[in-house]
């Protein structure tokens, strides 16, 4: 017995020692991948010594003798800090995520292959001008120089994630950067998603279903089923399970994910310091690390500083000594879904404009970790590539024997958009910027501009040309064989939508600016946020950098201010005081709080929580009886719809009546029931004391690591979770998930914010949502996250002396001896 006990002790001690040794070994190899920012490297591909000066926040300031050397060093800096993220973004565009993530990523790879993101990127390389091709090549050489350093110096494979996934670090190619730009373009537009939703709503509720997503002044649409008389549909209510948010972000970006931004500027005559001001905050899904990366590069045309996306060698939002610019996804209708009839008895042919036509087909093989490779057949029609039926539940709107093909302005080769973006950061004034942006195709952008002489705005990107007889004008999927439904081509944005000298000296956009209607489409972003932004800009005659910062962090919900007086009109203070502790008293207390609330979605207040849960419960009660299970997939609130219902616009009040019940319910009754349901839900979560409830308890920003975020244990290290203010309609946008066990999670926001002050350029301020490094063990992995949450910033200067004075490390690149 004693001998057995001794062996058990020895075995236990041995296991403990082995476990500690493994942890130490894992830590050692992980730490080995942290770059030394004070090192000197001999590298091939530069003509003269280059310096990468790192600030306290790990922002690289790059100085070299030539533009080629500078772009080389930018590629190396990106790779030092974000190599795994760059590799994943490239894989997402190539359709090769399954090689590291396994079969769960197969649908994403299938879609990327069908869209031809990487194929079109390769075809676009020759469409770039000479300086851009040189920059892409130099950038790729810089990335590869760091990969070589990893291989030569045993630097932990470059990032700890590479130890956990069976991944070979392939050398970077110029086309890889173009592919990430294509992925960015596909991720920024949601027009396909909205077309499918309109069709599903029409099938579920043919008489009024499309009212839910209609915009004010939008002309009526035909019932979707009427476009395919006699055909049978799979059924709009049939649905697949909502995709896990983390899986949807496996590649950091995903087609149809959606993006937004605010961009506004005031000319010198409208500012206190006598110089133009410009603010910009591109809004994407929140990840860890974030999508954006701060950098400063010194080009022959002057220094450039601002926000980059690792993998793309351009300052996408920033300033140079003479010009500041900010980008906003333009929210134009740049996609149309066409329903194609497959020839009965011959799956290789479809009904074209001139009769039955062969699909253009090709086969591609997708490697899958842990499984046998999968070969897929990709089909293209005259309208575009055939999409998988599972994407966005497209199969639910397909007549039997039909498939869906996508026409998209970005789905082509010979796209010079990278040249346009490179020209933008080299431009010296607004006119030069507008000229450079003339070649932009996708993503379509509203670009806000400011220089010493004034401010302006440019709509840059290609627009589809639709026939006047098109019955949907981009809002519904249409039969692809009808000539009047097809695109007549694509064209650059009209010159009339460029304004370089706005009246009043200010411009503002949240993606909804410009002409509406058939030219740009009817889905024009959040008009409430646009109105609030314009109000903040117009309420002051003279602006300062601080007023721009305050506007950028504004958390007042214009939707709450619009809906609460309408929805609660017949509920405020209408009942006799109820006893403490009763549901009636809770309702009265909740209404009293909301009646005195200014609409600020402050994380520390109960009112935003009550309002948000109430509006979601209200919309659910209004639409459930009409839409059935489809109501589960409405992940956002539609304020224009609720407004129409409670004003009974064109008889929309009928939505409040529950069809299955004998009584005729009023909107006031439904509003009261929804409020009671919201209070009950919140009481179950947080207890009966309304004053103790907090918006930030449910509305937390979740910056998820796409690769490690769901791994037990590691998720606590790599994911960042913070309580946040705002909502989807506030200028400081904080979009909610909208489904699942935690629908109030903040999963989208301004991953980059900047305010550029041309009166005192070095006082310009910047912030990103996490940190500069993608390495979870780096102190720069999350050192900016708390500043971002509090609405604070860091300064970045173009002054080389200031960069050197504040340097925490200087990387020296020396030309390798031949």
TrEMBL record:
Coiled-coil region: none
Source organism of this protein record: Paracoccus laeviglucosivorans
GO molecular function: hydrolase activity, acting on carbon-nitrogen (but not peptide) bonds, in linear amides; metal ion binding
Record has Transmembrane helix as a keyword: yes
Required co-factors: Ca(2+)
Ligand binding (Ca(2+)): 195, 333, 336
UniProt cross-references to InterPro entries, sorted A to Z: Ntn_hydrolases_N, Pen/GL7ACA/AHL_acylase, Penicillin_amidase_A-knob, Penicillin_amidase_dom1, Penicillin_amidase_N_B-knob, S45
Cofactor binding comment, as recorded: Binds 1 Ca(2+) ion per dimer.
A Gene Ontology BP annotation from the UniProt entry: antibiotic biosynthetic process
Alphabetical keyword list: Calcium, Hydrolase, Membrane, Metal-binding, Transmembrane, Transmembrane helix, Zymogen
Listed Pfam families: Penicil_amidase
Family: Belongs to the peptidase S45 family.
Residue intervals passing through the bilayer: 7-30
Name the record gives this protein: Penicillin amidase
Domain of life (superkingdom): Bacteria
């Amino acid at each position: 017995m004693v001998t057995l006990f001794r062996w058990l002790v020895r075995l236990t001690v041995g296991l403990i020692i082995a476990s500690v040794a493994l942890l130490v070994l894992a830590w050692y190899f992980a730490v080995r991948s942290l770059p030394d920012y004070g090192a000197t490297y001999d590298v091939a591909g530069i003509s003269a010594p280059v310096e990468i000066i790192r600030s306290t926040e790990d922002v690289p300031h790059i100085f070299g003798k030539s533009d080629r050397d500078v772009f080389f060093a930018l590629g190396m800096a990106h790779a030092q800090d974000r190599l795994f993220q760059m590799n994943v973004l490239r894989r997402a565009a190539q359709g090769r995520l399954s090689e590291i993530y396994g079969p769960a990523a197969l649908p994403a790879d299938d879609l990327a292959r069908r869209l031809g993101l990487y194929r079109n990127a390769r075809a676009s390389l020759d469409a770039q001008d000479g300086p851009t091709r040189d920059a892409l090549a130099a950038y790729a050489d810089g990335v590869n120089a760091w990969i070589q350093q990893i291989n030569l110096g045993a630097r932990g494979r470059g990032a700890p994630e590479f130890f956990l996934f069976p991944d070979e670090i392939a050398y970077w190619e110029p086309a890889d950067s173009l592919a990430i730009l294509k992925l960015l373009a596909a991720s920024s537009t949601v027009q396909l998603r909205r077309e499918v939703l309109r069709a599903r709503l029409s099938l579920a509720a043919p008489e009024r279903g499309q009212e839910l997503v209609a915009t004010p002044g939008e002309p009526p649409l035909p019932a979707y089923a009427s476009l395919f008389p006699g055909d049978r549909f799979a059924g709009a209510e049939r649905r697949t399970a909502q995709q896990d948010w983390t899986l949807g972000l496996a590649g950091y970006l995903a087609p149809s994910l959606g993006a937004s931004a605010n961009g506004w500027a005031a000319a010198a005559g409208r500012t206190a310091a006598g110089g133009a001001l410009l603010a910009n905050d591109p809004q994407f899904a929140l990840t860890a690390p974030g999508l954006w990366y701060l950098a400063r590069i010194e080009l022959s045309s002057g220094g450039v500083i601002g926000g980059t996306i690792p993998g793309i060698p351009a300052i996408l939002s920033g300033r140079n000594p003479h010009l500041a610019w900010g980008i906003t996804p333009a929210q134009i209708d740049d996609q149309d879904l066409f329903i194609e009839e497959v020839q009965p008895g011959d799956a290789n042919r479809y009904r074209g404009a001139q009769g039955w036509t062969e699909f253009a087909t090709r086969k591609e093989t997708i490697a899958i970790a842990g499984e046998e490779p999968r070969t897929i057949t990709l089909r293209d029609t005259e309208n575009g590539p055939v999409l998988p039926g599972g994407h966005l539940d497209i199969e639910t709107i397909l007549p039997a024997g039909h498939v869906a093909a996508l026409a998209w302005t970005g789905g082509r080769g010979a796209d010079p958009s990278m040249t346009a973006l490179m020209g933008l950061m080299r431009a010296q004034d607004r006119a030069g910027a507008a000229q450079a942006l003339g070649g932009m195709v996708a993503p379509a952008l509203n670009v806000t501009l400011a220089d010493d002489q004034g401010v302006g705005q440019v709509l840059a990107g290609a627009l589809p040309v639709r026939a006047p007889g098109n019955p949907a004008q981009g809002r519904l999927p249409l039969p692809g064989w009808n000539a009047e439904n097809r695109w007549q081509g694509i064209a650059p944005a009209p010159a009339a939508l460029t304004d370089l000298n706005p009246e009043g000296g200010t411009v503002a956009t949240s993606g909804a600016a410009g002409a509406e209607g058939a030219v740009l489409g009817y889905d024009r972003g959040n008009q409430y946020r646009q109105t609030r932004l314009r109000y903040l800009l117009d309420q002051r005659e003279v602006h300062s950098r601080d007023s721009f910062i305050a506007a950028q962090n504004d958390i007042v919900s214009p939707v709450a201010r619009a809906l609460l007086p309408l929805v609660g009109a017949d509920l405020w203070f209408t009942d006799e005081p109820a006893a403490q502790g009763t549901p009636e008293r809770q309702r009265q207390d909740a209404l009293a709080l909301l009646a005195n609330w200014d609409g600020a979605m402050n994380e520390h207040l109960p009112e935003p929580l009550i309002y948000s849960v109430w509006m979601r419960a209200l919309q659910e009660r209004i639409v459930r009886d009409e839409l059935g299970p489809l109501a589960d997939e409405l992940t956002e609130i539609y304020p224009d719809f609720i407004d129409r219902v409670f004003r009974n616009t064109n008889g929309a009040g009928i939505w409040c009546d529950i069809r299955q019940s004998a009584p005729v319910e009023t909107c006031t009754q439904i509003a009261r029931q929804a409020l009671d349901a919201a209070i009950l839900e919140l009481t179950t979560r947080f207890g009966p004391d309304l004053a103790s409830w907090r918006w930030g308890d449910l509305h937390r920003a979740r910056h998820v690591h796409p690769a490690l975020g769901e791994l037990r244990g590691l998720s606590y290290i790599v994911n960042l979770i913070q309580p946040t203010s705002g909502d989807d309609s506030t200028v400081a946008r904080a979009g909610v998930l909208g489904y699942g066990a935690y629908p109030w999670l903040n999963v989208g926001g301004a991953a980059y914010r900047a305010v550029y002050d041309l009166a005192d350029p070095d006082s310009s301020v910047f912030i990103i949502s996490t940190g500069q490094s993608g390495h979870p063990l780096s102190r720069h992995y999350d050192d900016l996250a708390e500043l971002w949450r509090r609405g604070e910033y860091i300064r970045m200067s173009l002054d080389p002396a200031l960069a050197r004075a504040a340097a925490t490390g200087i990387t020296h690149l020396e030309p390798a001896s031949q």
